[in-house]
Design a protein that fits this description.
single chain, alpha+beta, 8-stranded mixed β-sheet, 5-stranded mixed β-sheet, about 20% strand
Length: about 450
């Protein structure tokens, strides 16, 4: 008995309609990337494990897909680890490569490797798939595309401002109203850790805080206790959870909370710079909001951090995110190369547009006219017309087989092809074509020139 085909959990096949809709999002994002001066690059789907491991925190490292060494991979395995069944110790000896977890760390590797060919500041965009060994659920997949834009080689806060504008331009192009661009600053988070007396537990603090929207305030506090953050420190955190109001209101609250923290005050200054610039150049469609609990648990962020929330009507996680990283290339040997980047979550954006019915009808338009096949002689006559129509950018096809008329008509109907052309002996003798509109049934006899005009109207 033949094996029933299947695909791994967290992966998907895409129909022609789905691919067309995905390409619409890709093209909209790419158009804005180009408008803002970003250049395209591509990197391999897998990297050396040493490039990826240790860059995303413990939780991120666990989600990296490892690739077994080729050949007899157990031959060089760590025998002690194998005997002890210690997978963590065993992995480095049987897996030297891994699928990329995101596009940012590979980009940092790219910058270091190609630094002598790059003109800094370097603005790049990259649209490629990434892989994470996550638990599949709505909007969360193990294989998905990221659409990234980064600038390296500049510490200017105007880059932060430009990325807010870039997000706004993309969502405006997609007609996606009600999007919120949340912003915070890792210096503010460092300030929080400082004023509560837990400076040494910054990573534990931020990882827990980043889960606020998933596990709630009490869940965050519980996780902090489990990580060894004192009860007294957690009590000092309460004003953070209570900050509300406008961007300016929250800034005022932050200034009070972080009064004694120099790094915290620096973070506030950077947030104020971005806020003032956006007030001078209002966004078209998105809203900018300060979220002081936004942490994005990736270790490499050092300044501004972004997360984009879908419209409230759609129950969905973030549809984009990013931030400033001042020392990411340093891990590969290139010091003092500040960068900032953002990412668009294509798959979640797709689900949001689908749920809100925001895909234009033209996105999924396919073949406009199908020529009915009556036999080889008629097919040659039809194919000459098909070629001329295609030269006019009209999507035309000939049904490949001289099957029964009903079968060919049913094919056109199933594929939503709006027109069919009948060209038999009578039409050929008159150098004409009978055009039929599939929905109305209306028919007309037209010359090739008239056919072109009709299909182009």
């Amino acid at each position: 008995m033949a094996q029933k085909p299947s695909i791994p959990k967290g992966t998907r096949d895409f129909s022609p309609e789905e691919v067309a809709k995905r390409n619409y999002i890709f093209e909209t994002i790419k158009r804005q990337f180009k408008r803002f001066g970003f250049q395209p690059i591509e990197t391999p789907s897998f990297e050396n494990s040493s490039t990826l491991m240790g860059k995303y925190g413990d939780e991120g490292d666990r989600l990296i897909f490892k690739i077994l060494n080729s050949g007899d991979f157990l031959r060089k395995a760590d025998k002690d680890a194998l005997d002890e069944k210690d997978s963590i110790k065993l992995t480095p000896s049987i897996s030297e490569k891994a699928l990329r977890y995101d596009l940012t760390v590979p980009f940092a590797r790219y910058v270091v490797q190609h630094q002598n060919e790059i003109e800094f500041p370097f603005k790049r965009y990259q649209i490629q798939p990434v892989w994470r060994a996550d638990r599949p659920q709505k909007g969360r997949f193990r294989e998905f595309f990221q659409c990234d834009a980064d600038v390296v080689g500049s510490k200017s806060l105007w880059q932060e401002v430009e990325f807010v504008q870039l997000y706004d331009s993309v969502f405006n192009g997609l007609g996606l109203e009600g999007v919120t661009i949340k912003i915070n600053n890792r210096k503010v988070l460092s300030g929080f850790a400082e004023v509560i007396g837990e400076k040494d537990k910054l990573i534990d603090f931020t990882v827990a805080l980043d889960k606020l929207d998933k596990i709630g305030e009490e869940g965050v506090k519980k996780e902090m206790r489990e990580k060894g953050i004192s009860e007294e420190a957690i009590k000092k955190l309460q004003p953070i959870f209570n900050l509300q109001g406008t961007f300016s209101d929250k800034i005022k609250g932050l200034k009070t909370i972080l009064e004694t923290s120099e790094i915290g005050r620096k973070g506030i200054e950077e947030l104020e710079f971005i806020q003032n610039a956006i007030e001078e150049m209002p966004l078209k469609i998105a809203k900018l909001d300060l979220d002081v609990t936004l942490a994005r648990g990736l270790n490499y962020y050092t300044g501004a951090i972004y997360e984009v929330a879908a419209p409230e009507a759609v129950k969905m996680g973030s549809i984009g995110g990013g931030g400033r990283y001042d020392d990411l290339t340093g891990i590969f040997g290139l010091k003092d190369m500040s960068g900032i980047g953002i990412s668009f979550g294509l798959d979640r954006i797709y689900l949001v547009l689908e749920e809100l019915d925001l895909f234009p009808e033209t996105v999924t338009q396919n073949t406009k006219v199908l020529f009915i096949n009556f036999g080889d002689k008629e097919a040659m006559y039809a194919m000459k017309a098909v070629e001329k129509l295609r030269n006019e950018n009209i999507v035309a096809e000939l049904y490949p087989d001289s099957a029964k008329m009903g079968k060919q008509m049913k094919y056109a109907d199933k594929r939503d092809i709006p027109y069919v052309v009948l060209a038999g002996e009578e039409e050929m003798s008159q150098q004409k074509f009978t055009l039929k509109h599939m929905k109305s049934g209306e028919q007309s006899s037209l010359s090739l020139e008239e056919l072109k005009q009709k299909l182009n109207s």
